[in-house]
């Protein structure tokens, strides 16, 4: 029986989030983003050693901080070194849901020069998310012109 190099239902790139209090993170992502839990692997001490969730057609993984192994999250580092982009049909509704669940708005939801409607928030665990809906198809030339205009 042959095994696929990329598991069925996954994409080539899968974000892996490290958090303090993975149990709370699983509950937050379910409430804030409508994420479905796919897998949970608790360690003997009850902390989450590995978990997987799915939003739309995309999986992401997460685990509890393990500082002795060098795995620490944004809360311990003093900020996130990466941001996640989540496309959805109704960005306004999902953004409001994420904020109502405890997210902190960093950039208000608005139409962007690059053809998306998008807003950015920080989740309670320090990860930064941008939620957007693609509204316009633009050529590279149009993008360049709009960026120049947006930057003054």
UniProtKB/TrEMBL annotation:
Supply the Pfam families for this chain.
Answer: Glyoxalase
| Stored SUPFAM superfamilies | Glyoxalase/Bleomycin resistance protein/Dihydroxybiphenyl dioxygenase (SSF54593)
> What residue stretches are annotated with the VOC domain?
9-134
Query: Protein name, please?
Result: VOC domain-containing protein
Q: Which organism is it from?
A: Simiduia agarivorans (strain DSM 21679 / JCM 13881 / BCRC 17597 / SA1)
